[in-house]
TrEMBL record:
It is a multi-pass membrane protein. It is found in: Postsynaptic cell membrane. One of its GO terms (biological process) is gamma-aminobutyric acid signaling pathway. This is Gamma-aminobutyric acid (GABA) B receptor, 1a. It comes from Neolamprologus brichardi. Residues 1-15 form the signal peptide. The lineage of its organism: Eukaryota, Metazoa, Chordata, Craniata, Vertebrata. Belongs to the G-protein coupled receptor 3 family. GABA-B receptor subfamily.
C-alpha cells in the first residue's frame, strides 16, 4: 500500500474548487470526494434571482486543472425589465430598459405583432458585475453588554458600505462586504469570535471592533496577522499606544480629547493653578495623567489631585481645605450628584470657583431624585450653577455635504429610516453612529488610495493575506493621512491613530446649558496646519461665558 502511494502520489484528477459568491456547485453523483476524476463535470448554480455569468460548467482536464480557469464565473443579480411604452412615438413599439447598474441581454426593442404578441423574446437584465473582487471587513458589533453600540452602529456602517459600493469613483473593481458578529462588549466572547474571524475563510482585510475592552484585545492580536484595526467606538486613553497597538485607528476620539480644550480655556482665562478630583477608574486616571502632562507644557500647575472610590466627602473637604478654585472633576453621573451635594455642603461653589465637568451627563442630571444624596433640588441647582462642560462633538454641527454627499441631518434621517421606527433613545450607539459611518468611509477612501501605489509595486489589494506586510503598510499609510469631511466632522487621526475632533464647550447659566464655544483639535498636531488656535468663543450660536472670569 505504501509502495502504491509512492508510485502514485497524486491520483489523476482535479481538486475541488470554490463556488462563486452567492452560488454553489452541483456535483453529479459524487459528493464527498476531495479529488474529482478526469472528465468529471461540475455545474455552478446561483442562489436567489441571480444568474451565472461566465462559464457555467467546468470539466476536469487530464493535467489536473479545470477548463476555462482564466475566466471567472460569477453569480449576478438579474432584475426585471422595465417596459417603457413609447406611445407617443408609436403605439406598437416598446423600448426595453434596465434599472441603473444592470445591462440588458437580448434585443432592446420589441414590436407588437398582428397576433397580439411581442416579436422578440423578453430580454433579461444582468448586473454589470464590474466589481469582481470582494474585500471583507471583519466586524464586531456589541448588541448587548456595557455599551450595546452595535444596535445603531451596525445599520450605520452598513449604510456607508452600500453607498461606497455604489460609487464608481471609489474602489471601482471591488466590493466591500461586512462579516460581523455580536461581541456583547465582552473581551472573553470576543476572543472566540476573533478566532472565528481569523481562521475561517474568507480573508479579512481589516477588523472593526467596538468597546474599549474588545478593541484592546483585537488591536493587540492583530499585528500577528498584519491586520489593520479600525474602531468606531472605543474611548479608552490606553489604546493610544503605538508600541502595544501598532496598527490601531479609531474614529472615536480618546477620552483625553477634552484636555487640549481645557488647557486652552485655562490659558485664555489666565489660570495657572488648578485642582482635580476623580472617581478611581482606569479611564479617568489615564485622562488626568494626560492632563497633568499637557498643563505642565503650558506652564500650569496641578496643585491638588484628589480621588475617591464611591464616597467623595473626604476628597471634597480636602479641595476646600487646600483652597481649590479651578477644579476639573472626572466621574460618572451618579457620582457627580454625590460630589455636588458635598460641594454644596462645603460651599465650594459660587463666583470664586469654576468647575470643569464632562458633558455627556443628562441635561437635568442635578435635578434627578437620588436616594444617595441629601441635598434638595434647590441646593443642587445652586451648587452646579456656572460650571463648564466639555463634550466631544460626534455630529457635524455645520451643514456641509462631506465626502458621502450627505449632511449630518440627512444622515440622521437616513439612519432613522434604517432603524425602522425604533426610538433613538433606546437604541444603543445612536450618538456614536456617525463615527461608525465615517469609519467605513475612512476605510474605503484609504483602500482606494492604496490601489495606485500597490499597482506600481505589482501588488493588488486582492493579494492580501495574513503574511503580507507590504499591503498592510500601504493601508496604514493611507489611513494615517486620512483627512476628509465626514458626518461627524473632519476625520483626521493623530500619531497614535486616535481621532481628532471638535469639542463643544458649554456652561450652565440660570439652570440650563448654553454653548460658549467650540474647540477643534483636528487642527492641532498637524504639521501641514500649524497651531492655529481654533478656540471659537464668539461663534454665532454661542453666548458669552458668565462668572468664569471672576474666579480669581
Ligand atoms: C492543462 O491543459 C489545458 C488544455 O489542455 C491547458 O490550457 C492548461 O494550460 C494546462 N494547465 C497546466 C497547469 O498545465
Ligand atoms: C437599443 O440598442 C441599440 C443598439 O443595439 C442602441 O443604439 C439603442 O440606443 C438601444 N436603445 C435603448 C433604449 O437602450
Ligand atoms: C446607486 O447609484 C445610482 C447611479 O449612480 C443611483 O441611481 C442609485 O440610486 C444608487 N443607489 C443607491 C442605493 O444609492
Ligand atoms: C479613488 O482613487 C482614484 C485613483 O486611484 C481617484 O481618481 C479617485 O478620486 C479616488 N476617489 C475618491 C473619492 O477619492
Ligand atoms: C442627611 O442629613 C441628615 C441631617 O442633616 C443627616 O443626619 C444624615 O446623615 C444625612 N444623610 C446622608 C445620606 O447624608
Ligand atoms: C437647601 O434647600 C432647602 C429648600 O429646598 C432650603 O430650605 C435650605 O435652606 C437649603 N440649604 C441651605 C444650606 O441653603
Ligand atoms: C449630492 O446630493 C444632492 C442632494 O441630494 C444632489 O442634488 C447632488 O446632485 C449630489 N451630488 C453628487 C455629486 O452626487
Ligand atoms: C503617521 O503620521 C504621523 C504624523 O501624524 C507620522 O509621525 C508618522 O510617521 C506616520 N506614519 C507612517 C507610517 O507614515
Amino acid at each position: 500500500c505504501l509502495l502504491l502511494l509512492l508510485f502514485f502520489p497524486f491520483p489523476p484528477g482535479c481538486a475541488i474548487i470554490r463556488p462563486p459568491r452567492d452560488g454553489g456547485i452541483r456535483y453529479r453523483g459524487l459528493t464527498q470526494e476531495q479529488i474529482l476524476p478526469v472528465d468529471y463535470e461540475i455545474e455552478y448554480i446561483c442562489r436567489g434571482n441571480r444568474v451565472i455569468v461566465g462559464p457555467k460548467v467546468r470539466k476536469c482536464l487530464p493535467n489536473g486543472t479545470w477548463t476555462d480557469m482564466m475566466q471567472a464565473s460569477r453569480c449576478c443579480k438579474s432584475s426585471l425589465v422595465s417596459f417603457f411604452l413609447s406611445f407617443f412615438l408609436s403605439p406598437l413599439q416598446t423600448d426595453l430598459v434596465c434599472h441603473a447598474g444592470f445591462i440588458l441581454e437580448g434585443r432592446n426593442i420589441s414590436h407588437c405583432t398582428k397576433l397580439g404578441k411581442w416579436d422578440a423574446p423578453k430580454p433579461t437584465c444582468l448586473c454589470e458585475c464590474l466589481r469582481i473582487y470582494q474585500l471583507y471587513i471583519g466586524a464586531l458589533f456589541p448588541m448587548s453588554g456595557g455599551w450595546p453600540g452595535g444596535q445603531a452602529c451596525m445599520p450605520s456602517a452598513q449604510m456607508a458600505l452600500d453607498l461606497v459600493n455604489n460609487r464608481s469613483d471609489i474602489l471601482p473593481d471591488y466590493e466591500l462586504e461586512l462579516i460581523h458578529y455580536d461581541s456583547m462588549c465582552d473581551p472573553g466572547e470576543a476572543t472566540k469570535l476573533l478566532y472565528d474571524l481569523l481562521y475561517t475563510e474568507p480573508i479579512k482585510i481589516v477588523l472593526m471592533p467596538g468597546c474599549s475592552g474588545v478593541s484592546t484585545l483585537v488591536a493587540e492580536a492583530a499585528r500577528m496577522w498584519n491586520l489593520i484595526v479600525l474602531s468606531y467606538g472605543s474611548s479608552s486613553p490606553a489604546l493610544s499606544n503605538r508600541q502595544r497597538f501598532p496598527t490601531f485607528f479609531r474614529t472615536h476620539p480618546s477620552a483625553t480629547l477634552h484636555n487640549p480644550t481645557r488647557v486652552q480655556l485655562f490659558k485664555k482665562w489666565k489660570w495657572t493653578r488648578i485642582a482635580t478630583i476623580q472617581q478611581t477608574t482606569e479611564v479617568f486616571t489615564s485622562t488626568l495623567d494626560d492632563l497633568e502632562q499637557r498643563v505642565k507644557e503650558a506652564g500650569i500647575e496641578i496643585s491638588v489631585r484628589q480621588s475617591f472610590l464611591t464616597d467623595p466627602a473626604v476628597a471634597v473637604k480636602n479641595l476646600k481645605r487646600q483652597d481649590a478654585r479651578i477644579i476639573v472633576g472626572l466621574f460618572y453621573e451618579t457620582e457627580a450628584r454625590k460630589v455636588f451635594c458635598e460641594v454644596f455642603k462645603e460651599k465650594l461653589y459660587g463666583k470664586k470657583h469654576v468647575w470643569f465637568l464632562i458633558g455627556w451627563y443628562a441635561d437635568n442630571w442635578f435635578k434627578i431624585k437620588d436616594p444617595a444624596i441629601n441635598c434638595t433640588v434647590e441646593n443642587m441647582t445652586e451648587a452646579v450653577e456656572g460650571h463648564v462642560t466639555t463634550e466631544i462633538v460626534m455630529l457635524n454641527p455645520e451643514t456641509v455635504r462631506g465626502v458621502s454627499n450627505m449632511t449630518s441631518q440627512e444622515f440622521l434621517a437616513a439612519l432613522m429610516s434604517r432603524l425602522g421606527g425604533k426610538n433613538p433613545e433606546e437604541t444603543g450607539g445612536f450618538q456614536e453612529a456617525p463615527l461608525a459611518y465615517d469609519a467605513v468611509w475612512a476605510l474605503a477612501l484609504a483602500l482606494n488610495k492604496t490601489v495606485a501605489p500597490l499597482k506600481a509595486k505589482g501588488r493588488r489589494l486582492e493579494d492580501f493575506n495574513y503574511n503580507n506586510h507590504d499591503i498592510t503598510s500601504e493601508i496604514y499609510r493611507a489611513l494615517n493621512t486620512s483627512s476628509f469631511e465626514g458626518v461627524s466632522g473632519q476625520v483626521v487621526f493623530d500619531a497614535q491613530g486616535s481621532r481628532m475632533a471638535m469639542t463643544l464647550i458649554e456652561q450652565l447659566q440660570g439652570g440650563s446649558y448654553k454653548k460658549i464655544g467650540y474647540y477643534d483639535t483636528s487642527y492641532l498636531d498637524s504639521d501641514a496646519r500649524p497651531q492655529i488656535s481654533r478656540l471659537r468663543t464668539h461663534c454665532p450660536t454661542c453666548v458669552k461665558s458668565v462668572g468664569a472670569a471672576h474666579a480669581l
